[in-house]
Amino acid sequence: MTSPKTIRQLEKTALQLRFDLLEMIGVGKAGHLGGSSSLAEIVAALYFHKMRFDPRNVKDPNRDRFILSKGHAVLIQYAALTELGVIPREELKKVKTLKGVLQGHPDMAVTPGIEAVTGSLGQGLSIGLGMALAFRLDGRPSRVFAVMGDGELSEGQLWEAAMAAAQFKVDNLVGILDRNRVQATGPTKEIFDIPNLAEKWTAFGWQVIAIDGHDVKQILEALDAAETIKGKPTIIIADTVKGKDFSFAEHNAAFHNGILTEDLLRQGLADLERRRDALAHNPAGD
Amino acid sequence: MAQHQNMREAYGLALVALGKKNRDVVVLEADLGKSTRSVLFKEAFPDRFFEMGIAEQNMTSTAAGLALAGKMPFCHSFAVFASGRAYDQLRNSICIPNLKVRVCGSSSGLSDFGDGKTHQCVEDMTIMRALPNMTVLCPMDSEETARMVAALEDWDGPAYIRINRNDLPLLYPEKGTYRIGQVTRMREGKDAVVFACGIMVSLALEAAEHLASQGVAVRVVNVSTIKPLDQAAIIGETAGMKAIVTAEEHTVIGGLGSAVVEALRAVAHAPVEFVGIRDQFGISALNYPEIMVHFELTAAKIEQTLKAILPR
User: Fold this and answer.
1) Does the model's pTM come out above 0.90?
2) Domain range holding A165?
3) Most buried residue among A157, B204, B283, B288 by CB atoms closer than 10 A?
C-alpha cells in the first residue's frame, strides 16, 4: 500500500509538471498542451515513484525505460526530466527553438533522458517490445513502459506489436493507454471510433487493467499489479481528460496543439493556482 | 567460366559465423527465413532469433528497441518490403537515432524473376541512400557478401545490404582484403571505365573481355558500397578515361549511376551513360537470364552503351 502522503506528493508533482507545460508553451508558441496534460499524473507516478530510474545515472543499463509512443506529448516528459534535474531548467523556455535541446518530438540524439525517437505514431510499442526482449535475453531487471494515445490506436503497427508481444510472452513490457478521447481534429468518437478496447486487448492476449488516469492511487495500484502478471504483457487503459486542469483546454481538440494568448496563459496559471489551493487544503489520502 | 555460388546461402552462413563470434547479434525475420536464409541462424541460435510474422513495420521498430538495449539486430525480408514497407520505421526509429541495425533486403533487383512487380525491387538503393546515416551495400558475389557481413560487426550506424537470390559468378580475388567503403578495380583498362555493382560486375567484366578483342581497354570497378561513396576513389578511377558507364540492376534514378555522377559533378570528366532500369517496375519472367535480357541488363548492352559514347 502506498501511503496517502506519497499519493499527495505525486499529485503535487503532477501539478508542478502542468506549471512547467505553461512555462514551455508560453505565449504565441504552439504546444501540445492537451495530450501532455492528460498524462501528468501517470508520468509523475512513473518517474517519481515507480520506475527504476536514477536521474544522476540516466544511462544505467538496468534502468526502466519510458517510451512515449504518442511523441507529441513530449512536453510532459521534458517537465518530469527537468524536475528530476536531468534537463536544465533554462531549456524549458527554449523548447522547439534552434537554441535549445528540446525538440518538437522525442529525440534521444539531442535530449538527455529520452530513450528513443518517437512521434511518427504507432512505433513506440514495437520499440518497447524490442527492449523488453533484449532485457529478457540479458537477464536484466529492467521494465518498459510504453505510452500510447487512443487516437494513435488506429495505427496498424500498434496491433502488430500487440500480437508480437503476446506471442513472445513478454511480461516486462507495460502498455499505458492515455484514453483522453480527443484526437487532433476532434473527439475520437466522431473522427475514428475504436470500440471495445478492453475486449480487443484481451483478445490480443494482454492483461487489461482499467483505471482513472488522474487518480494517483489507482495508477500506482495498476503499476504494482502489472508487475505481478507473468507470461503475458499488461496494458493499463487509463481514462483521462485531454487538457486536464486547464479550463479552456479540457476535452477541447483546439488545444491538441494550440497557441496560448496572454489571456489564456493567465487563465491557465489561475486554474493551476486553484488546483494548488485545493491540494493544500484538503486532507491527503481520503 | 567462373564458379557460381548462391548469394543468400552465403549471407546466411556469414550471419551464423558472426553470431558465433558476437553474442549480441540477434536476428529478426518476417516469415521469409527459408528464402533469406536467416533460418540458418535460427537453427544455430534459436534464443537469438525472433520470428516476427508477416509484419515488417513492427519487426523494424522492434529491431530499434533491441539496438537501444545493446543488441546488434539483423532484420530480414525481401528488399521491396524491407526498404519500402518499413521505410518510415527505418527513417524514424532507426536512422534518426543512428542505431546499429542491419537490414537485409533479400531477393533484391529482378532476382526474384517469377514473382513480378510487387516482389521485385529496383528502387531500394535510391530510397535507402536518401536516408541520413544509412549505409547502403550491394555485394557482387558470395565471397564479398560474407566479408561485408563480417565487417558490419564494427561498423557504426544503420546499414542496408542488398542480397541477390540467385547463384552468381565468384569474382572476389582470393587474397583480397575487404573494408566497407572499398572501391575495387576488377580489371585494368586505359580507355574507358565501367562502375558496376551486384551482378552487373560480372556482366561488365564480360563486356570488357569482348571489347578487348576489338582493341578497347576497359577498366571495371566494383562499387559495392553505394553509400558512403568513396568519391575521391571514383574521381581517381576516371582519370584519363574517354568514357564512363555505370551498370546496376536497379532504376537509373537515384542509384549507383546517380551516385557516381554526384561524385564527378565538380570535376571535368568524360561522357557518362547509365545501364540500368528506365523508370519502370519489374515483370514476371521464366528465369533470371530472360528477365535481365528483357530489361537490357546484359554484357552486350554495356558494350553498346560504352561504344556509343566513346569518341571515335
Assistant:
1) yes
2) 4-281
3) B204
